[in-house]
Amino acid sequence: MSNGSVQSVDRAIAILEILAREGASRVTDLAAELDVHKSTAFRLLGALEQGGLVEQSGDRGRYRLGFGVVRLAGAATAQLDLAKESRAVCLRLAGEVGETVNVAVPQDGHAVNVSQVRGPSAISGHNWVGQRTPAHATSSGKVLLAFGALPLPEALDRFTPLTITDARLLGLEEIRRRGWAFTVEELELGLNAVAAPVRGSDGAVVAAVSASGPSYRLTPQRLPEVGEIMTAGAREISQRIGYYR
Amino acid sequence: MSNGSVQSVDRAIAILEILAREGASRVTDLAAELDVHKSTAFRLLGALEQGGLVEQSGDRGRYRLGFGVVRLAGAATAQLDLAKESRAVCLRLAGEVGETVNVAVPQDGHAVNVSQVRGPSAISGHNWVGQRTPAHATSSGKVLLAFGALPLPEALDRFTPLTITDARLLGLEEIRRRGWAFTVEELELGLNAVAAPVRGSDGAVVAAVSASGPSYRLTPQRLPEVGEIMTAGAREISQRIGYYR
DNA sequence: CTCCTCTTTTCCGTATGGTGGAAACCAAGT
DNA sequence: ACTTGGTTTCCACCATACGGAAAAGAGGAG
Fold first, then answer.
1. Is residue B153 domain-shared with residue B39, that is, in the same domain?
2. Is B130 on the interface with A (CB under 8 A)?
3. What are B216-243's pLDDT values in tens digits?
4. Which positions in chain B touch A14 (Cβ < 8 Å)?
5. Range of the domain at B37
6. Are residue B109 and residue B201 in the same domain, yes or no?
7. Is the reported ipTM for this assembly greater than 0.85?
8. Which of A147, A221, A239, B7 is deepest in the core (most CB within 10 A)?
């Protein structure tokens, strides 16, 4: 843990905080509050302005927070929103399907779980949250691959004898057509899963919600039924985070 | 207009943008993308973390945007929200009262107008938006003084023979009791106004909405009626920006 | 359990980027 | 037209931020 000592970055952040508090400020006032020279304050404001984090008010020499801050915050809260808004839906889905439900987002070429609700009959205490999973061997991953939220990996590693290691056999087009994906003992023997796409406000797929359980309960015959349930659940999560189509 | 040349601030902002785009990143990846040394990236992240704009993800060495960005954005959008959300209400109030309606926020010891809707019978083409007005001589200003959104100025300047220049005679307690304020030819001869307080999500008064017009139309006898209308309008604006009490 | 690989984190000498100061420029008020 | 106070520009200097080396840590393979 560092002590945060980059003087001009510290000062720039202090300027942002002052502007958040005051609404708008003049160069002179900011300089006085920061105890720096007016030319220093002016230069720091220039850098923040160039980066979109501040902008000039109508009248000369007065600054306020810029829309760049709102854009950054939008990105910061998007995943907070997703985890928060999806929780209630995951709880219901876990009860309805009877298995563990997860929400995964694309990150560094992997599917990373950000939310989990354990199924009522869950045997395993396994917590998937924070864990990255191989996209080609998980139902969530296949969804993210199919809908363009993840790029196809160069190598598809084998985890079980049933793992698909040929990209052409992943069936991504069929997943797009059907609207949900599944795996049958491809990540772990005895583990099946079904996932559906979660869309953001612009319609792009930003996450996947999945149900997973032992193959003797989540049988291949049961996949279509569970697929429809997850698709409806995914749609509801999408609406909760701002997708209205 | 400066060229934004503060290298470490520029780099810090670039880090924020990368994190907004990627969701989370490692030190090594940020360094590569910024084309700086890993120790440089690490130090900049430390400064941003100290300022609350980034935080570490669960796993070691991975960073994401922090809640400080959301707090800054909250401040940035609050006034955008106010101007946007109040517009529809101001339009209706202007029609209902028949006079020009303004919304003012406290800034640097003044009441500053951020939104205006001209009344149907407005004679003057005067645009108040962006203009700061003396708090003690305007109805909006008196509201902001009464409810603690503005401090009492040291000197109360006289604008007309009717301007109140003794702070004790402003009647701030009565304004709090009654819930609205008025001026009668205190800023300009022949100009009267009525204002009511707009509250933010935490209940604090963050703005005032006012109706102003010529004293032969906005007569003293008409002030109570208009006061009630403005109070209802202010409550509606408050609810639109998140006040639910 | 050991070793390897890669990343994170720390430390430090150096040079360059950021500083304060002086001054030019600008806007508002009298 | 002049004054006042703030904004903005320019520049020499030095203190801070840099990159590099290395220590520490984590994860994976054998």
1. no
2. yes
3. 999 999 999 999 999 999 999 988 777 7
4. 51
5. 7-65
6. yes
7. no
8. A147
